[in-house]
């Protein structure tokens, strides 16, 4: 099992490292084709609920088209809060959040891919953001202090982890009492067929690692979260089916918004 987890880790490092360095366009390859350049990325993120004026504040280079929802719509960020983004990528959600929490707040982005962290820091420099801190690390073992974060966000990342319970335990650990979880992710609608589960491209493309809403709720309750809400994103099948044309993945997975709270 340990070897399998390490194999997944190496595959993801290679896959997303190539995206960050420009050697792979978004999640595209011989199977997946969800991207189409900056204009397509903007179009998809518009459908996910991001306002057009966000690109007046955030460099377009930060939008790699890798999200499946908009966790910030439900994060209800306040001035002065500390926000943690699990799997921050090139920094898109972090830079938006930085504007919402203001200079007195802090946004921490954690990503396992060195190329992504480098790109996120470049984008923060372009945006003139001084209240962001991008850290190289694993979401299963966060480089973040206990009870130091008000809100944990994530966008289409936790499905990639083969150790989802560890991820949520870490999120619980770093949240302050009363802290909030607001996550957009891909969830399975039913048991995934073996041909999907065994496809490495579909795993890296946020499909094969998805589990059901029932499983996510079970983990959240086991870890200690309360006030749990898991709601599918309306219309998400319209862009999910484009991730793997002809495979029918939209019959098996959906984008969902996961909200929970750490008890005071």
From TrEMBL:
Keywords: Methyltransferase, S-adenosyl-L-methionine, Transferase, Ubiquinone
Domain of life of the native organism: Bacteria
Reactions catalysed, as given in the entry: arsenic triglutathione + 3 [thioredoxin]-dithiol + 3 S-adenosyl-L-methionine = trimethylarsine + 3 [thioredoxin]-disulfide + 3 glutathione + 3 S-adenosyl-L-homocysteine + 3 H(+); arsenic triglutathione + 2 [thioredoxin]-dithiol + 2 S-adenosyl-L-methionine + H2O = dimethylarsinous acid + 2 [thioredoxin]-disulfide + 3 glutathione + 2 S-adenosyl-L-homocysteine + 2 H(+); arsenic triglutathione + [thioredoxin]-dithiol + S-adenosyl-L-methionine + 2 H2O = methylarsonous acid + [thioredoxin]-disulfide + 3 glutathione + S-adenosyl-L-homocysteine + H(+)
Gene Ontology biological-process annotations: methylation
Record domain Methyltransferase: where: 78-223
Enzyme Commission number(s) from the entry: 2.1.1.137
A Pfam family hit: Methyltransf_31
Family annotation (SUPFAM superfamilies): S-adenosyl-L-methionine-dependent methyltransferases
A GO MF term: arsenite methyltransferase activity
Record family assignment: Belongs to the methyltransferase superfamily. Arsenite methyltransferase family.
Protein name: Arsenite methyltransferase
Provenance organism: Thermodesulforhabdus norvegica
Lineage start: Bacteria, Pseudomonadati, Thermodesulfobacteriota, Syntrophobacteria, Syntrophobacterales
């Amino acid at each position: 099992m340990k070897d399998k987890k390490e194999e997944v880790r190496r595959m993801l490092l290679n896959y997303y490292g190539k995206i960050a360095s420009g050697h792979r366009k978004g999640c595209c390859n011989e199977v997946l084709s969800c991207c189409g350049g900056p204009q397509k990325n903007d179009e998809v993120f518009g459908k996910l609920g991001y306002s057009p004026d966000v690109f007046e504040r955030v460099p377009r280079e930060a939008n790699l088209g890798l999200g499946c929802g908009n966790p910030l719509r439900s994060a209800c960020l306040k001035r002065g809060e500390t926000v943690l983004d699990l799997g921050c990528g090139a920094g898109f959600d972090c830079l938006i959040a930085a504007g919402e929490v203001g200079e007195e707040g802090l946004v921490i982005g954690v990503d396992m891919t060195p190329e992504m962290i480098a790109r996120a820091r470049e984008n923060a420099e372009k945006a003139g953001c001084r209240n962001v801190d991008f850290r190289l690390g694993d979401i299963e073992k966060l480089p973040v202090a206990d009870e130091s974060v008000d809100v944990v966000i994530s966008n289409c990342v936790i499905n990639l982890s083969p150790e989802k319970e560890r991820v949520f335990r870490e999120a619980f650990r770093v949240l302050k009492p009363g802290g909030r979880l607001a996550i957009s992710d891909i969830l399975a609608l039913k048991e995934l067929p073996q041909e999907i589960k065994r496809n490495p491209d579909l795993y890296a493309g946020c499909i094969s690692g998805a589990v059901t809403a029932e499983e996510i709720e079970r983990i959240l309750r086991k870890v200690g979260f309360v006030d749990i809400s898991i709601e599918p994103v309306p219309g998400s099948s319209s862009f999910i089916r484009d991730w793997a044309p002809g495979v029918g993945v939209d019959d098996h997975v959906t984008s969902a918004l996961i909200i929970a709270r750490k008890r005071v």
